[in-house]
Amino acid sequence: MTATTLKTGHVGINVTDLPRSVAFYREIFGLGLIGEKTDGEDRFAFLGEDDIVLALWEQSEGTFDTRRPGLHHLSFEAPDIAAVRRAEAALKDAGVELFYDGVVPHGEGAASGGVFFTDPDGTRLEIYAPTGADTAPAPVKGAPTCGFF
Fold it and tell me: CA-CA to 107 of 20 to 30 Å: which in 36, 42, 94, 145?
């Protein structure tokens, strides 16, 4: 097996409130509901669209701890910067706080960039485009923007 024969299957995320998280990911990312189990103790939902599939597992308490080893953030690539700006507007309409002031580049002189935010449980997320973000200054000097939010 080599890396070229693999692709991401699905990403599993622990959540504290399944209905709240399902609503968030459907509203912000436009993901459809593939399947769910909402009764009993083992509650989960699978959401997806095209190549993105998220499995939300209601089995945690508290918020995402960025100081512990494990996931740093999830990054989603948009087709262009206009799509990132639409996502930015949707996030603001939903009352989601952005880490930086709107769309920012991934680093000094980078054309790629996007918006950085968290889900309702504090999991760090990014929506970016490969080009078009070089109209704003990089918020983190000398390091990737997505590494330190």
Answer: 94
